[in-house]
Write a sequence for this structure.
């Protein structure tokens, strides 16, 4: 090996932080607290325990655990042992988990005590012979009996993790993360979030989701403090923020809205907390309430295949001078590539770049160091996703003259009505601008005359009410009449195990209703 090359691996962040900041607190998990030196030692002990269980180089270790210290330790102990971590969504059922165990070929599983029953049910369904390590006394005993071990990573392009997609349109796919990709993405997250050794990061984002958007490694790289949470509840989150001086956190928009419900007062003094939010942009009313509580939201865009956020809405100080409505519009955009992302493209069906006019819609295409090299054991899916050297995301967007991207829809969610393409995101954003609306999903309903018409599914804030008539009037002031949904349904929206709204379930409901008893058409044109 050349003196000028060393294989990159995010696991080495822990060794450095232990050497430089060994006496600093690395993890706070209830009463459990360890320094960086202690975390490093525990991770090496875990690696030794896995080697004692005959984990081979490249072997997969499934982890079904909540955001506790054992889950974090696995992100270092597994690669130290030469293995590949397979984090599993804790909201999945036994059959779904068994599929992941079988597809990944995992032969060791680490599980939280609280999830031991689910783990046992999944293992019973699996074709694999799996050794299960439960957290608690058994886990601690395994660490105590093992000799510390740390393998040297020689291939930075080798896998460090396999993250499974939510599988909304079929079986979940295993997205391979390389040591190099995670290393670079972790540094990008630390850079954009402004993490330092003085930072305190609250785990409101599941570590199983894109490996916690790579903050499992980014926080350690900065030698900041990991503050673990077993579950996300605002009655727990706000005291944790106060008690541990939290400076950073990440969350889905739904989590943000639950933290700042309307009508609930609360102050945190002069503290400013960086909050990375992925998915759909939060409603303006939610952003306003978050800001009032000291939560400064940065909108991010990415997917499992991009190691989490490949795009960041890089806020510019001069935008603070704009009127509130213009600030909200700018905040809703997805943004520009993060510091390690390659050039982002928005392409037409022929693969040519669309003009940066803020109007011409194309598909987002990505490539670079923070893009998965492949789906695990699925070359056909890999080829379909990367037909020409660019990952096709399935997200339709425009590029503004300043280079910032703004998603208009998922390709599969465009509503074609009377020959017009209606973007569900535009209608949803108009709905979310109403203060009573906290979540909105707009999908197509079959229509004999128009082909398709939009239907809106609405979740309102607790303690608020809004009528269909009021929402129609609100929309007519913001979008064209023909884009206004024909019908509105109010209630809790169905979600995937990762918290995403299940639009396919809403579409199925509408198709079934149309097939059995076509609803009356409401012509809003």
């Amino acid at each position: 090996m050349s003196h000028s090359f060393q294989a990159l691996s995010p696991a080495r962040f822990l060794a450095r932080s232990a050497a430089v900041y060994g006496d600093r607190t690395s993890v706070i998990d209830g009463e459990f607290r360890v320094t960086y030196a202690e975390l490093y030692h525990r991770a090496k002990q875990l690696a030794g325990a896995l080697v004692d269980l005959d984990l081979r180089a490249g072997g997969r270790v499934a982890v079904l655990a909540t955001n506790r210290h054992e889950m974090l330790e696995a992100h270092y102990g597994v690669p130290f042992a030469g293995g590949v971590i397979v984090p599993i969504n804790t909201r999945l059922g036994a059959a779904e988990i068994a599929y992941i165990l079988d597809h990944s070929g995992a032969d060791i599983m680490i599980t939280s005590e609280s999830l031991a029953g689910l783990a046992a049910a999944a293992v019973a369904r699996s074709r694999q012979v799996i050794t299960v390590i439960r957290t608690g006394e058994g886990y601690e005993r395994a660490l105590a009996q093992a000799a510390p071990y740390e393998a040297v990573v020689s291939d930075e392009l080798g896998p460090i993790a396999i993250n499974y997609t939510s599988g909304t349109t079929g079986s979940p796919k295993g997205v391979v993360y390389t040591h190099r990709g995670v290393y670079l993405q972790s540094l990008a997250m630390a850079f954009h979030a402004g993490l330092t050794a003085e930072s305190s990061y609250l785990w409101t984002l599941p570590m199983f989701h894109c490996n916690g958007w790579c903050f499992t490694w980014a926080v350690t790289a900065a030698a900041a403090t990991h503050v673990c949470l077993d579950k996300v509840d605002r009655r727990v989150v706000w005291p944790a923020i106060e008690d541990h001086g939290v400076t950073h956190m990440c969350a889905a928009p739904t989590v943000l809205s639950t933290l700042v419900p309307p009508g609930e007062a609360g102050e945190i003094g002069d503290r400013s907390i960086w909050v990375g939010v992925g998915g759909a942009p939060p409603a303006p009313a939610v952003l306003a309430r978050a800001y009032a509580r000291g939560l400064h939201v940065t909108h991010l865009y990415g997917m499992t295949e991009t190691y989490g956020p490949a795009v960041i809405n890089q806020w510019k100080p001069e935008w603070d001078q704009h009127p509130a409505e213009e600030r909200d519009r700018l905040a809703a955009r997805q943004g520009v590539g993060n510091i390690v992302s390659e050039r982002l493209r928005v392409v037409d069906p022929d693969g040519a770049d669309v003009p940066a006019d803020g109007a011409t819609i194309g598909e987002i295409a990505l490539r670079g160091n923070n893009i998965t090299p492949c789906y695990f054991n699925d070359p056909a899916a890999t080829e379909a996703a990367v037909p020409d050297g660019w990952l096709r995301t399935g997200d339709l967007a425009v590029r503004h003259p300043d280079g910032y991207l703004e998603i208009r829809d998922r390709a599969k969610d465009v509503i074609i009505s009377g020959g017009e393409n209606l973007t569900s995101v535009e209608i949803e954003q108009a709905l979310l601008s109403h203060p009573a609306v906290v979540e909105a999903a707009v999908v197509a309903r079959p229509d004999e005359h128009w082909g398709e018409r939009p239907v809106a599914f609405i979740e309102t804030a607790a303690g608020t009410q809004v009528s269909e008539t009021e929402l129609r009037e609100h929309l007519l002031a913001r979008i064209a009449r023909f884009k206004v949904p024909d019908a509105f349904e109010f209630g809790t929206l169905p979600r995937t195990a990762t918290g995403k709204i299940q639009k396919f379930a809403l579409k199925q409901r509408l198709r079934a209703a149309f097939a059995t008893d076509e609803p009356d058409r409401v012509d809003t044109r």
User: Anything to note?
Assistant: The longest strand covers residues 437-447. The two ends are 69 Å apart (CA to CA).
